[in-house]
Specification:
This is ClpP family protease. By secondary structure, the chain is of the alpha/beta class. It is built from eight helices and ten strands. The chain has one domain: Alpha-Beta Complex (2-enoyl-CoA Hydratase, Chain A, domain 1).
Amino acid sequence: MSDEQQPAPDTAKPKEEKGSLVEKIQALGQTSVPDMGPTNIHCMTVVGQIEGHMQLPPQNKTTKYEHMIPQLVAVEQNPKIEGLLIILNTVGGDVEAGLALSEMIASLSKPTVTLVLGGGHSIGVPIATAANYSYIAETATMTIHPVRLTGLVIGVPQTFEYLDKMQDRVINFVTNHSSITEEKFKELMFSKGNLTRDIGTNVIGTDAVEYGLINEVGGIGQAIKKLNELIDKQKSSEVVQ
């Protein structure tokens, strides 16, 4: 076979591999990642600030609730997904968006487990309590404080009444989805002296469990083990029925 008839060397594949390698280094800081393969557990993260009706500046690390809601719907509908793990490290954010996510998580028919790493502050508290079972890292914290508005507040009775009702929604959700009493939660919420120049309480991992806010101190291993137990339990109950 002459040189003209020989097929050109296949250079496309090495270029693709090189491009993929560069993308991995840029995105993840490493050349290879563990192959997840097929899994029956879906993992979602709530990180940074929970973004609701107002768009936050681009430099803010955010969790957009309009991105989370379709994922939760997909988890409910996809028969291959049998359980949901939610990992939180959030400073809080939009109250209504946080409550919307909490309500959706709580209403899923599939087993759910939450894990608070770093922090699950403010409106992150109801999200952390929304699952069937909740974990918190020993060094993680949760800030409990009254509902606040940023920016201009119209000083009329209706405004304060609206804030009070919104606060009641948060209190009712947390107390209905955890073991903490309403009296204890309000005590932590309105405590003075715990937060510098503010009202509220910063609760560490072991205290969150002691108060009944979170089920157990633990990490990713315990969370996945518990989720698999809940999945097996649900399968067993379905077989019996």
